[in-house]
Design brief:
The protein is α/β, with parallel strands linked by helices. 35% of the residues lie in helices and 19% in strands.
Length: 421
């Protein structure tokens, strides 16, 4: 089941196995702080290292090589210069204001570091360090949140892989840098997030934002959805979830956000064995899969079966605006794939209506194209041939697109919202 959050004068978070008190109004003021997290002017890497392979080195290198546009301040009391940057003994020694800190120090030091961040007026921290509730160290994670609350610092993590904002060239992560795009990916698993980024890079697929939020001690999925709903670079939101802290609020936010931007989700831990694995991975309670399935449908969240399914849908939706209805026009130069497409549409409750004479005339320039009609039965009217083969026209998309768009204005299919005839 979803865990619940009760609100009175203060907010009392129940996350299955842990509970801490959160000051009233913290989430209401969180939007500005989340913006500072993802759009900082200055970032400090606390625990920066000169040793290749160390997390503190790899994150700093990612930010330097990624050409972050703001200031970067490495912090380590035992170093002087790393990657050409002057190193400071503590966050307090940094001479300028810092918006976001990336923390890679040993877990027992993290609460004290957050107190120092609060005194420095840092707005947000991303805690890469592990060794908290995911291994049963609940008390230490409670201290982390209490320190963050005391200093007014919003926290992503701990036990996470970092964040990316490609628009700002912010690669504050141990994972691969990725090209800019319009897909945001939120993941509770850093390793899975890294695998997705690596796969997307191979496929030349871009992202707008990447967030690995780990144990979710403070900032949760609902707040991230709210931030991304206002992000102009993001058109599609993809989420990997192991469990929800405040299911009711997440569904309320998702229902609102999904009206403007598609939300795709993988929910793992649906078996009893998977639920136990989830608890030991990020300290999350997985909950009933049937409840999640129904809640996702209610909120307009599209559920993916696996990572391939998630990324295929995300890529399609990032290029294709939402449709106005359930009628889909299929144009193909091969009969077999066309029949399979119509079958797939029927399984999904969509329609491939009979094409009109007007549409066929508009598409007559396509050589050997076949239009498919309802029920998967092909209409084998061969359209008027032209001198140019189909593949050449597809390559010359500037020539092809306006003609297909003209056909889309016909009444035999539903044009996507936001498209133009």
């Amino acid at each position: 089941m979803f865990e619940s959050r009760c609100v009175s004068k203060s907010k009392y978070v129940r996350d299955g196995h842990r509970s801490v008190t959160i000051e009233s109004g913290r989430q209401e003021e969180g939007a500005t702080q989340l913006k500072s997290l993802f759009e900082p002017r200055a970032v400090a890497v606390i625990g920066a290292s000169s040793k290749k392979g160390k997390i503190g080195y790899e994150i700093l290198r990612n930010m330097v090589d990624g050409q972050f546009g703001g200031a970067i301040y490495p912090v380590n009391p035992h170093e002087e210069v790393i990657l050409g940057l002057n190193v400071y003994r503590s966050i307090s020694d940094v001479p300028d204001a810092v918006d976001t800190c990336i923390i890679t120090v040993p877990p027992e030091v993290v609460p004290q570091v957050l107190l120092e961040c609060g005194r420095k007026k840092v707005k947000g921290a991303v805690i890469i360090s592990a060794g908290f509730s995911e291994i049963g160290n609940l008390e230490l994670e409670k201290q982390v949140l209490e320190s963050a609350l005391k200093g007014g610092v919003r926290v992503i993590g701990p036990n996470c892989a970092g964040i990316i904002n490609t628009e700002k060239r912010l690669y504050a992560t141990i994972e691969s840098r990725i090209a800019p795009g319009s897909i945001a990916f939120i993941t509770q698993s850093g390793a899975l997030g890294g695998a997705v980024l690596a796969w997307a890079r191979e496929q030349r697929m871009g992202f707008s934002k990447f967030v690995s939020y780990g144990n979710r001690s403070d900032v949760d999925e609902a707040e991230l959805l709210e931030y991304l709903s206002e992000d102009r670079q993001t058109r599609v939101i993809a989420v990997y979830i192991e469990g929800l802290r405040d299911g009711r609020r997440f569904i309320q936010v998702a229902k609102r956000v999904s009206m403007a931007k598609p939300i795709l989700a993988i929910k793992s831990g649906y078996s009893s064995e998977g639920s136990r694995a989830t608890l030991s991975h990020t300290g999350a309670m997985a909950g009933s899969d049937k409840i999640y399935d129904g809640a996702f449908r209610q909120a307009g969240i599209i559920r993916a079966e696996d990572v391939d399914d998630l990324l295929d849908m995300a890529k399609a939706l990032s290029c294709q605006p939402p449709s106005r209805g359930d009628r889909i026009g299929v144009v193909t130069n091969s009969g077999g794939p066309g029949v399979m497409m119509v079958d797939a549409l029927a399984r999904l409750g969509l329609k491939a209506p009979e094409s009109s004479a007007e549409s066929r005339d508009k598409l007559a320039f396509l050589e050997g194209a076949i239009m498919f009609e309802s029920g998967g039965v092909p209409n084998f009217r061969t359209l008027r041939r032209t001198a140019k083969p189909v593949w050449a026209l597809v390559q010359r998309h500037r020539y092809l697109a306006p003609r297909l768009s003209a056909a889309a204005s016909d009444s035999w299919q539903d044009r996507p919202r936001g498209s133009h005839p």
